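Before relying on records like the one below, remember that each one covers exactly one chain. Contacts with other chains, cofactors or solvent are not represented anywhere in the record.
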Amino acid sequence: MDLTHLSTLSSWPYYGVLVAAIVEGEVTYIAAAALVAQGQLHPLGVLISGALGAAIGDQIFFYVFADASRAGWRGIHHSSGRQRPSSTARGATAP
Protein backbone atom coordinates (compact mmCIF):
# COMPACT_ATOMS: atom_id res chain seq x y z
CA MET A 1 0.00 0.00 0.00
CA ASP A 2 1.44 3.33 -1.06
CA LEU A 3 1.51 5.78 1.84
CA THR A 4 2.81 8.75 -0.13
CA HIS A 5 -0.78 9.61 -1.03
CA LEU A 6 -1.56 9.98 2.67
CA SER A 7 1.26 12.43 3.29
CA THR A 8 0.33 14.69 0.37
CA LEU A 9 -3.26 15.19 1.51
CA SER A 10 -4.34 17.65 4.13
CA SER A 11 -4.72 16.04 7.54
CA TRP A 12 -7.88 17.99 8.39
CA PRO A 13 -10.34 15.38 7.07
CA TYR A 14 -8.70 12.74 9.25
CA TYR A 15 -9.00 14.97 12.32
CA GLY A 16 -12.65 15.38 11.37
CA VAL A 17 -13.09 11.62 11.23
CA LEU A 18 -11.36 11.30 14.61
CA VAL A 19 -13.58 13.88 16.30
CA ALA A 20 -16.78 12.65 14.66
CA ALA A 21 -15.95 9.05 15.60
CA ILE A 22 -15.71 10.12 19.24
CA VAL A 23 -19.30 11.35 19.10
CA GLU A 24 -20.93 8.99 16.57
CA GLY A 25 -18.73 6.39 14.94
CA GLU A 26 -21.04 4.50 12.59
CA VAL A 27 -22.24 7.52 10.62
CA THR A 28 -18.67 8.74 10.33
CA TYR A 29 -17.44 5.46 8.86
CA ILE A 30 -20.17 5.42 6.21
CA ALA A 31 -19.35 8.96 5.10
CA ALA A 32 -15.59 8.35 5.23
CA ALA A 33 -15.94 5.08 3.30
CA ALA A 34 -17.79 6.93 0.56
CA LEU A 35 -14.92 9.43 0.36
CA VAL A 36 -12.41 6.57 0.28
CA ALA A 37 -14.34 4.96 -2.59
CA GLN A 38 -14.15 8.24 -4.51
CA GLY A 39 -10.41 8.39 -3.89
CA GLN A 40 -10.56 11.55 -1.80
CA LEU A 41 -9.31 9.93 1.42
CA HIS A 42 -6.75 7.23 2.07
CA PRO A 43 -8.21 4.03 3.57
CA LEU A 44 -5.42 3.61 6.13
CA GLY A 45 -5.84 7.17 7.40
CA VAL A 46 -9.59 6.67 7.79
CA LEU A 47 -9.07 3.34 9.54
CA ILE A 48 -6.54 4.70 12.02
CA SER A 49 -8.35 7.95 12.81
CA GLY A 50 -11.73 6.22 13.06
CA ALA A 51 -10.43 3.47 15.33
CA LEU A 52 -8.68 5.96 17.61
CA GLY A 53 -11.77 8.15 17.74
CA ALA A 54 -14.03 5.21 18.57
CA ALA A 55 -11.68 4.01 21.33
CA ILE A 56 -11.33 7.49 22.83
CA GLY A 57 -15.09 8.06 22.67
CA ASP A 58 -15.85 4.74 24.34
CA GLN A 59 -13.44 5.49 27.18
CA ILE A 60 -14.78 9.01 27.70
CA PHE A 61 -18.40 7.91 27.80
CA PHE A 62 -17.58 4.96 30.04
CA TYR A 63 -15.78 7.02 32.67
CA VAL A 64 -18.25 9.91 32.54
CA PHE A 65 -21.32 7.73 32.99
CA ALA A 66 -19.90 4.85 35.04
CA ASP A 67 -19.84 6.75 38.32
CA ALA A 68 -23.26 8.28 37.69
CA SER A 69 -24.87 4.94 36.92
CA ARG A 70 -23.29 3.21 39.92
CA ALA A 71 -24.35 6.00 42.25
CA GLY A 72 -27.86 5.97 40.81
CA TRP A 73 -28.13 2.19 41.19
CA ARG A 74 -26.99 2.38 44.81
CA GLY A 75 -29.49 5.11 45.55
CA ILE A 76 -32.36 3.12 44.08
CA HIS A 77 -31.24 -0.06 45.81
CA HIS A 78 -30.96 1.52 49.25
CA SER A 79 -34.11 3.59 48.94
CA SER A 80 -36.19 0.44 48.45
CA GLY A 81 -35.32 -0.68 51.97
CA ARG A 82 -33.87 -3.98 50.81
CA GLN A 83 -30.47 -5.01 52.02
CA ARG A 84 -28.06 -7.30 50.32
CA PRO A 85 -27.63 -10.56 52.20
CA SER A 86 -24.27 -10.93 53.88
CA SER A 87 -22.17 -14.05 53.44
CA THR A 88 -23.12 -15.24 56.94
CA ALA A 89 -26.82 -14.95 56.16
CA ARG A 90 -26.41 -17.40 53.28
CA GLY A 91 -25.06 -20.12 55.51
CA ALA A 92 -21.35 -19.32 55.43
CA THR A 93 -19.52 -19.18 58.71
CA ALA A 94 -17.92 -15.97 59.88
CA PRO A 95 -14.11 -16.05 60.19
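The radius of gyration is 23 Å.
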